[in-house]
Amino acid sequence: MADVQALLPIYGLIVGILVGLTGMGGGVLMTPLLMLGVGMPASAAVATDLLYSAPTKIVGGWQHWRQGTVDRRVVRDLAFGSVPASLLAVGVLAYLQSANGKVSERWLEQFIGAVMAVAATIMIVRIVQRFRTGEDEHSVSGWQQRVYRRSAVVAIGAVGGFLVGLTSIGSGSLIIALLVLVVSLDPKRLVGTDVLHAAFLVSTAAVAHLFLGNADFGVAALLLVGSIPGVLIGSRLAIRVPRTALQFVLATLLLSTAVKLL
Questions:
Q1: How many CA atoms lie within 13 A of 106 on its CB side?
Q2: Number of structural domains, the chain?
Q3: Tens of pLDDT along 111-160?
Q4: What is the pTM of this model?
Q5: Could you write out the DSSP letters of every residue in 97-128?
Q6: Which residues constitute the domain of residue 204?
């Protein structure tokens, strides 16, 4: 275990760089790494990932708020659906663990694999769409004028919140992919809005998981040691590295990892 702990800051550094480079959510990268690389049970990996992600989301959300790249209305409506849904998801997990711990772990592992497969598929579809339309890889498509539908935004928040509460995956990979279909935001405000909302969602889910006793504070702290500088490095390299190609490689890797979990 000591050898694995020594590698945790490196894991955090790698994931942080990839998050900074690609804009992918950390959960879709870190949760399977904790399960397959560290050997943590699925529930512990989810809880630890949420605990480690919350400070990063809070800092990122605060920075976007200062920059004015946040739509408060969208954040409010997303949270209206996502926060209670995340608590419901943790409640469902607690019930399953109390009924049969081993079965719930295997079921959760398979569900995480399914969510990863969906997230990777969405990534590939968006990459193909950008390629076909000739869209710049550093932009976010779909921000043409639309009528704002609060019910649709709340529904997206509820779906994303439930998935995040159960698997820690979705705050940065699934929600933003669905959000571009129903709101009219320029790329910077779309990303900033998603990050600030994720700060509320991930923090709520992390606190709820703490009551289940699944999170590993030591692992989360060691991951943060590497991930914080990793995100800064990745963000600086993002303007030099072909993001689309890297996203495609990561999406393919995620699909293969999802197959192992299913």
A1: 3
A2: 1
A3: 888 888 887 887 777 777 767 766 555 555 545 667 788 999 999 999 99
A4: 0.83
A5: HHH-HHHHHHHHHHHHHHHHHHHHHHHHHHHH
A6: 2-261
